[in-house]
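A quick aside before the break. I want you to see a complete sequence-to-structure record at least once, exactly as it would be stored in a machine-readable document. Don't worry about memorizing anything.
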Amino acid sequence: MNSKKKRQKLFDSNKEREIKFAENSLPLSDYQRDYFVGYPYGYWLHKALALMYFIEDRSRVSLLRFPKDTDSDEFIIENLKMEIHMMVFHSAESLFLTVLAHYFHPAMPWFWMSICTQNKFNNIMNVWQEKGMGGIIKEPEKWLRDVLYPTINESHQGYRKTKNSAMFTKKYLDRLVIEYMKHKEYNAYKNGLRIFPPATLIDIADDTLGETTTDIHGGLLEYVVYEQQQEQKDAYRMKRALRKFDIEVDINIISTTSKILQNFMERKRVESKTAQGQKGTFNLALFDKVKVNDIFSSGYFEMRA
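That is the input. The structure line, written in tokens, reads:
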């Protein structure tokens, strides 16, 4: 067995485009139309806003109760907040796969998304985290401008806005990858021992002042993480960890992600529904006046482990 560490796999967009198709039950154009028409790019934002409906008014929580439900209103609300927090990562996965699919296999992005294995996705995310979007996609800002705003050319008065919007989108995606890769609570939520939100009241100490901090904005997630012992490869130490989160920031991220997905889908969605010879009109989201720091302005940091 070769003991040398395997080299990180490189992704060749031209190779990814070499996919061939045999005879199908329906024309590929039908599948393509179904993808653009039926893809629910607003799903996560709709769901997040629905959960906020109950979070913002405690009296509505009674609508969620089932017979012999013993959970407190506070416990239910905190779990709804946790669900919104995790939707950041659900929606991010969809956006990353959409971006990659439209780059690697633009002819039928839905098919590339369908056959992309978890292992391939993880490898790409590792490269993206290390090298940025440019490590995966050549000239990412130019490519994003062309794919997000294909109907606006250089002679259009809004062309500069689309270029600025593409710059923002590239920076936003690079930041979102970092957030997605570093948040250990997502794995605990999906697969591990879930202890969200904290089951007990927890005093958070300010190390600089030696005092207990009572003014904590946002919510707290408590979950189990592990660390591998250096002296013994098969030995792990388990510990509880706390992370502060802010659902207002989470909603902002989900909203931005949904708008970018909208730009990938909306033009072809409208064109797929438009009768032959009829001119379709559609809305595209611009980000020319938005800064990445406006989206990730607070929250998202680990309190203690």
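Two observations worth writing down. DSSP finds eleven helices and five strands in the chain. The two ends are 38 Å apart (CA to CA). We'll return to this after the break.
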